[in-house]
Amino acid sequence: DAGVIQSPRHEVTEMGQEVTLRCKPISGHDYLFWYRQTMMRGLELLIYFNNNVPIDDSGMPEDRFSAKMPNASFSTLKIQPSEPRDSAVYFCASSPGLGTQYFGPGTRLTVL
Amino acid sequence: AQRVTQPEKLLSVFKGAPVELKCNYSYSGSPELFWYVQYSRQRLQLLLRHISRESIKGFTADLNKGETSFHLKKPFAQEEDSAMYYCALSGLGTYKYIFGTGTRLKVLA
Fold it and tell me: How far is CA B96 from the centre of its chain?
């Protein structure tokens, strides 16, 4: 198993552009999590899904951020429009249940 | 407020010296505590969790509910322990993790 897969690994875009980050969880994992990592705030949970349904999106910073999980093997995190303060590393993680989460390699987003 | 605090951004120790990475938490309820580690160019991965009470790679951590702490300890540091360490908590029976800001451990030869 390749583990959690994220794409792209690096994204550089200009302010105002739409950005879409993608995640493929580990097969059989019912939970999927999106995190944002910054120097100032560390690792913050943005949203998580259970069986493709969003359960808690209280960490989503503002309406410019949206996340979807159309099926058990794919999720997207979209930022529209992007701003320089959105620059961060975005992690996706999946879990079979309570306890351990398995993280992807992350997407480093730079918004100019 | 629910919070995980790791007071040290960077901790440097010499090889063979004892290591203690501090973690304090604030949570209204019964939390489950974890330590995650990220080695250079690798993914963030679970190191240990308080429920399992294991020792992984020589590291241990004891949950002290009185002091609301979950410090990570190792008696003799090795160079390969150099990494970023994150303390995290979740409420028992919940899936919402709260992470600390992390401590970078450097073990010097």
Answer: 17
